[in-house]
Amino acid sequence: MKIAVILGIIYIAGINLAGFFSMGMDKQRARRGEFRISERTLFAIACLGGSVGSMIGMQVFRHKTKHKQFVYGMPVIFLIEAAVFLYLLLHHMQTKTTRTDFGMGTVLTEVIYGADGETVADGIHQLLLELENEQLSWRSDVSFVGTLNRNLAEGIPTPANETQRKWLSDSLTLCENTDGAFDITLRPLIALWGIEEDAPSVPTEEDIAQTLTKCGYENVEISTDGMVSAPEYAAMDLGAVGKGIAADEVREFLDTQDVSGAVISIGGTVLVYGSKPAGGAWQVGIRDPHGGQDAVLGVLTLREDTVVSTSGDYERYFIQDGVRYHHILDPDTGYPAQSGLSSVTVVCQDGLLSDGLSTACFVLGYPDSLPLLEKYHAEAIFVTQESDVFVTEGLESVFTLENPAYEWRKGAYDETK
Question: What is the pTM for the complete model shown?
Answer without folding.
Answer: 0.79
